[in-house]
Amino acid sequence: MLNKLLRQIRAYDMIHPGERVIVACSGGADSVALLFGLYLLKEKLGVELAAAHFNHHLRGEESDRDESFVRSFCDRYDIPLHVGAGQVTSGKKGLEAAARDARYAFLGQLNGKIATAHTADDNAETVLMHLIRGTGLKGLGGIAPLRGNVIRPMLKCTRQDVENFLEEWCLN
Questions:
Q1: Which of 30, 71, 65 is nearest to 51 (CA)?
Q2: What would the mean pLDDT of 99-119 be, rounded to a whole number?
Q3: What is the DSSP string of 80-147?
Q4: Which has the higher per-residue pLDDT, 23 or 143?
């Protein structure tokens, strides 16, 4: 997985030495793998690494456990962590879209490149959803590797890559 991360970062010129990279970390497998992968690569890339977690409070105690896990993980590896929180309500777009908007609003306040853990599987799902809804050529492109200061270095990694990586490093 580390080689795929490096290839994606270099192919799209995502990160430059001296930059600050903040990994959006939910506490799920994909974002933990990205955070730890960039932790292992930070010296090679010459970057300052941090993490960010947004607690939507949508799943009660489970949301708080996710936040606690991310805090502990970052403490263990001495990774600076930014934590945000908010009560998200459904609104016109629906709950998932409202949660995403709140998360990106929080991430947008942070100084640095924001790395999200979208994988090849997420990308395939996005393309399929666009096809089902009806799309033009732009929608067939899936998730953009770069959008403003948001980077997606895991778009070439599959869920199986993530699971193998976490198992290899005893993080599963």
A1: 71
A2: 91
A3: -EEEEE-----TTT-HHHHHHHHHHHHHHTSSSEEE----HHHHHHHHHHHHHH---HHHHT-S-SEE
A4: 23
> Comparing 114 with 139, which gets the higher pLDDT?
114
> Three-state DSSP class for 51?
strand
Name the pLDDT band for 59 (thresholds 50, 70, 90): confident
Which residues does residue 53 pair with via DSSP β-bridges, in sequence order? 83
Give the pLDDT score at 128: 43
Tokens for 20, please give them.
């600050």
Please check the confidence at residue 11 and state whether its pLDDT lies above 70: yes
Distance CA 114, CA 15 (A): 10
- Return the structure tokens found at 33: 């793998």
In the chain, the amino acid numbered 8 is: Q
Distance in Å from the first CA to the final CA of the chain: 15
Buried b (16+ CB within 10 A) or exposed e, 118-152: bbbbbbeebbeebeeeeeeeeeeebbebeeeebbb
- 3-class SS letters over 55-93: ECCCCCHHHHHHHHHHHHHHHHCCCCEEEEECCCCCCCC
In the block, which residue shows the tokens 């067939």? 140
φ, ψ for residue 52 (rounded to 5)?
-140, 135
